[in-house]
Design a protein that fits this description.
Blueprint (H helix, E strand, L loop, with lengths): L20 E3 L3 E4 L7 E8 L17 E9 L2 E8 L3 H9 L28 E5 L2 E5 L6 E3 L6 E4 L16 E2 L6 E6 L8 E7 L5 E8 L10 E2 L3 E6 L2 E2 L2 H5 L6 E2 L5 E7 L8 E5 L3 E2 L4 E5 L2 E9 L22 E9 L9 E14 L11 E7 L17 E8 L5 E5 L4 E3 L3 E4 L9 E9 L4 E8 L9 E4 L10 E5 L5
Antiparallel strand pairs: 1-5, 2-32, 3-4, 3-33, 4-5, 6-7, 7-8, 8-9, 10-11, 11-12, 12-13, 14-15, 15-18, 16-17, 18-19, 20-22, 21-22, 22-23, 23-24, 24-25, 25-26, 26-27, 28-30, 29-30, 30-31, 31-32
Amino acid sequence: MAYFPPTRAFSGILRPLRFEGDILDMEVEGEIPAQLNGTFHRVHPDQQFSPMYEDDQFFNGDGMISMFRFHKGKVDFKQRYAQTDKFKLERNAGKALFGAYRNPATDDPAVKGQIRGTANTNAIVHAGKLLALKEDSPALVMNPLTLETEGYTDWGGRCTSQTFTAHPKIDPVTGNMVAFSYASSGLLTRDCTYMEISPNGELLRELWFEVPYYCMMHDFGVTQDYACFHIVPSTSNWQRLADGLPHFGFDTKLPVYFGLLPRRGEAKDMKWFKSPNLFCSHVMNAFNDGSKVYFDTPVAKNNMFPFFPDIDGIPFNPEEAKSYMTRWTVDYNSKGEEFEKIEKLTDMVGEFPRIDDRYATQAHSYGWLLVTDPSMPYNGPNARASGLRINKLGFMNFRTGEQKHWFCGPDSLIQEPCFVPRTPDSPEGDGFIIALVDDITNNYSDLAIFEALEIDQGLIGKARLPFRLRQGLHGNWADAIQFG
């Protein structure tokens, strides 16, 4: 009998949804722009069975892929589980077999040595396939339109890493998918790889390197000439796992490293820069001008993740967990290891940054992010796994310094935004922002659509779901032309 404990990760508005189904021709309010012709795939963690441990992490749920398909002013919805090896083994057993988040010592002996991945962190289309991703396991291949699972890929036998990033980047100049992995040779190892995959899905390069210490390497940056790796001390060790502690813990005693790897170089060409302790995770974008590299990321003074607590037991500090979009500047040719500049770019407290992805790896003019504004009215409980009240959509104009925002109202919270160009060749920023807005009072979700450069004017239309989706992590748009 299924039972989900009354803990924060499994109750209230984080209660698992466990729903697979289809809705043809969703209810629409306002306008669905005719230029929107393609799919928006996103994913959220969603346990198919009761967890083995009541205090398990929200991030340990099975990946549930949602697809919104736009065509002729209409939107269809489809949702299916990503059927990982873990999912299939547990489905056959009729119960959970894999234990605590990233802790194989807690698994049922029947699944010892099996891939533990849940494919619950990101979903992106490349080479005509949908990749469902989680950074502790290989990439899972799915059909982008039917959402049928094909299975894990090793890129034609060329990939030797055991893992694959949840945040690959598409180089708009070459069309290559640029990716990396960490813990590449096994759990808790310092081994990493750098990868480039052609527009046709061929692994062109896999370069191994080592980082200063094992940590959560959730995202990275890519410029035309460099891959950029920020090493932030959400770290772990075998003793933590043996003690049954959360896999990651934040260590304020360790410095932050920032590594630049020339994309056409070798591991020996990696250069490391060093910063005093801080926290950052997601990356808006990176670009370079010659040897000078610019890296935009939300930065907080201290740990942002209360579910991965301080390793020394220091209480979580919400004030120090506030992150602000920040630009790091370093020069690959400099003789020292110091950052050239660290510049705070906004007073908006925000995360989940996005750009017009056609300008990834290049200097970007515009950016969007989710904003937390505790001064605004709110009628519900803390709803995100982080405890943050994400109630605004923010916009930044990097040319003029102009900033805008849109408040979702006191009954709602917002999930990660995604930019969609109006046409494939429209100017940068000319297009739409789509984002799920969750009404936690009336218990439904809307896929909201905004004019990207005018989000402060409010949404221009929305496709309505008759239920509320669980908190999602990441997602991406794919134009219909990608499916032939």
